[in-house]
Amino acid sequence: MTAGLGLPALGRLRRRQRRRTTVVLAGLVGVVAVFALLSLGLGAYRISVDGVFRTLIGQGDGRDDFIILSLRLPRLVAGILAGAAFGLAGGIFQTLLRNPLASPDIIGVTGGASAAAVFALVMLGAGSLGVSVAAFVGAAGTATAVYLLSWRGGLTGYRFVLVGIAAAFMAHGVLGYLLTRGEVREAQMALSWMVGSLGSARWPEIAVLATLLGVLTPALLALRPALGLLQFGDDTATGLGVRLERSRISLLAIAVALAAVATAVTGPIAFVAFVAMPIARRMMRSGAPVLLPAALVGVVVVTGADLVAQHLLPGNIKTPVGIVTAVIGGPYLLWLLATAGRNHGSVTRIT
Amino acid sequence: MLTSLRAGRGERVGRDVTQSGRSFTTRRRLGGLLVAVLLLALTVFASLALGSRDVALPVVVEALVDRDPAVNDHVVIWDLRLPRTVIGLLAGLALGLSGGLMQGLTRNPIADPGLLGINAGASLAVVVAITWLGIGTTAGYIWFAFGGATLAALLVYGIGSMGGDGATPVKLAIAGSALTAVLTSLITLVLLTNLQTLERYRFWQVGSLVGRDLDTARTVLLFIAVGTLLALVSGRVLNALSLGDDVAHGLGQHVVRDRAVIMTATVLLCGSATALTGPIVFVGLVVPHAARWVTGPDYRWILAYSAVLGAALLIAADVLGRLVAPPGEVEAGLVVAFLGAPVLIALVRRSRLASV
After folding, report:
1. Distance, first Cα to last Cα, chain A
2. How far apart are CA A274 and CA B216, in angstroms?
3. Where does residue A341 rank: exposed (0-12), middle (13-18), buried (19+ CB within 10 A)?
4. Smaller CB count within 10 Å for chain B: N or C?
5. pLDDT at residue A134 above 80?
6. Which band of pLDDT confidence, cut at 50, 70 and 90, is reported for residue A49?
7. Which of B313, B318, B263 minimizes the C-alpha distance to B286?
8. How confident is the prediction for chain B on average, in pLDDT?
């Protein structure tokens, strides 16, 4: 009887949630499209919306083609792919480990990448490809080490996070050492790699990242129900029939691969992985994992920050995108935190 | 009759068991604390005795007991080794305590005192002082570091407590991380455009006990004393808060006021430590974990242990840094990461993970 009374209300709630999902996703995609047009059209040589479209369908003139396809498109595509990869990786880590602080920056993945890359840069004098390879090896190596060290006949999320933090601190120790020992110019070079920028991305590296995202996204979709259950804790998840260890290892491997390759291509763009999921959750007003919105938020943050860095900041120094991501994403998250009301209890919950 | 007697005896036996259990735990905790204090004494002595200059042990003792300004070894001990030992002691104690407070306050085992934006706030203030005010000495940085730390923490707490449900642990943690990221970006922006600032800043940011004299320590001594006092009376409160806001409220705690007191203590302690040594990150995270491993979840004991072990860890790191690459030195802040990380990993692997 009471259940009969409750069902229509539940249905209404579900419908409302579904509508909200559609609106948020459409809105995010729209924002990405506008940002993409702006970033292809704006610059020292301005190209009209019309011209951008003509070039994209293969009917532009030679000059537009060159500027868009060789200069601006790689930058844009790298931003979109890296934003999505960081957003997904952060979202997976935060949901799986049930801790809002557990983004790849915290658990050593990007730290390992940075330490290896800066070592290659400062000590070995490596070029951009060498730095990318070093970053990938550093990230993957750190993640594997963390995984092996936290394995004790099974894997607990909590233990994984703590070992990851220890690894991150060691990596930052190495970074601090490298920064004080090199020449100050080298330190500056290292610093600018460490904030992450889109300018150095080239098509071959971008292709690797695109392929990876193309392969891993379906895998992620298949694991999504398991992730939804894992966030309730191991016991509940086991009780509900999740094959705990296998799902968790697959999800962790996917998150690490995404973060590692994205870091290798663009450098560790600060804050995107951390901020994407909390913002997406608050937009969706949902306690469930919101991977697709998180990926889109990541894209919006990176492309938007790059627009600001390229065109809005005064001066002729090209500001790396990683500086702007935090300056834009941080206050937005703070604003969301400050305005969340009590009646949206689930909104402020993230763990 | 018989059953009631038995029941009575059973009750008594039960009480005896819990009582002896309790005293066993207390004895274990006291014993552990004694070991920790001995460890600290050992590191202090090592810090006075060891370094790139060889000083024989009898001479060390002689220097401490009967100081002779004409003897070079005595001068080394009193003017070089004693100040950095005192600074290590103060900063380590402050960092350990504030780490314990922070993990209790946010109910997050991976929180460290820097999470309130303290390190980032202090760093940005120092960068501003170097770049635009032309200040270039550690003693000159101290008030900037302290002021920046306080401002950042106030901002984090202010933002964290806006909105309907007040300063929940999760909101504090997220607000702290977000503000830290913003401030770090601003720091990087200045450093990338200003080579001279980078040159000075990179040596401050590793965290070191060298180059500060005892006057610097005297400046923050009062803050550390007040912070320690607040921290030590907060143990019981943290125990209540660890049961969740609702239960703590039901137990008669004034949750908002308690949080404010704990925040104040954290800012005083961690701000002072950062002002003294530069941002040293690992101590505040790893020491409360080591403490919890021995003491269990009682914050009164965790805090006491954290204070002693924090000082011991930082001084030990400083001593090791002197010994690994003579005649050069590796800064304590770097050694702590290399020393602390394996310790943390070993602890995490061994323990059954008493959660916060």
Report:
1. 34
2. 37
3. exposed
4. N
5. yes
6. confident
7. B313
8. 80
Q: Which B residues 276-305 touch A at CB under 8 Å? A: 281-282, 285-286, 289
- Which residues of chain B lie closer than 8 angstroms to A100, CB-CB? 170, 173-174
Q: What is the mean pLDDT of residues B95-122?
A: 82
Q: List the single residue in B with minimal CA-CA distance to A108.
A: B341
CA distance A255 to A91: 9
Task: Collect all residues with Cβ–Cβ distance below 8 Å to B348 and sequence separation of at least 6.
Answer: A150, A159, A162, A163, A166, B289
| Residue B199 forms contact with A (CB below 8 Å) | yes
Residue type at position B68 = D
CB-based contact (8 Å) between A339 and chain B? yes
How many C-beta atoms lie closer than 10 Å to residue B293's C-beta?
18
How far is B180 from B174, CA to CA, in rounded Å? 10
Mean pLDDT (chain A) is 80
3-state secondary structure B270-339: HHHHHHHHCCCCHHHHHHHHHHHHHHCCCHHHHHHHHHHHHHHHHHHHHHHHHHHCCCCCCCHHHHHHHH
Chain B's closest residue to A171, CA to CA, is B337
Higher pLDDT, A4 or A180: A180
CB < 8 Å to B175, chain A: 334, 337
Band of pLDDT at residue A296, cut at 50, 70 and 90: very high
- Dihedrals phi, psi of B220, to nearest 5 degrees: -100, 0
The conformational region for residue B117 under phi > 0 = left, psi -120 to 50 = alpha, else beta, is left
Give the tens place of pLDDT for each residue, A297-340: 999 999 998 888 888 776 656 778 888 888 877 887 787 777 76
Going by C-alpha positions, the residue among B92, B72, B80, B64 that lies closest to residue B212 is B80
Hey, what are A48's tokens? 């009209």
pLDDT-based confidence at A287, cuts 50/70/90? low
The distance of Cα B201 from the centroid of its chain, to the nearest Å, equals 22
The pLDDT score that the predictor gives to residue B18 is 53
pLDDT at residue A85 in the model:
93
Most confidently modeled of A143-152, B86-95, B131-140?
Answer: B86-95
DSSP-derived secondary structure letter, B252: T
Higher per-residue pLDDT: A345 or A145? A145
Contacts A162 to B, Cβ<8 Å: 109-110, 289, 344-345, 348
Please name the residue of chain B whose CA is at the shortest distance from the CA of residue A192: B192
Percentage of chain A beyond pLDDT 70 is: 87
d(CA B82, CA B73): 12
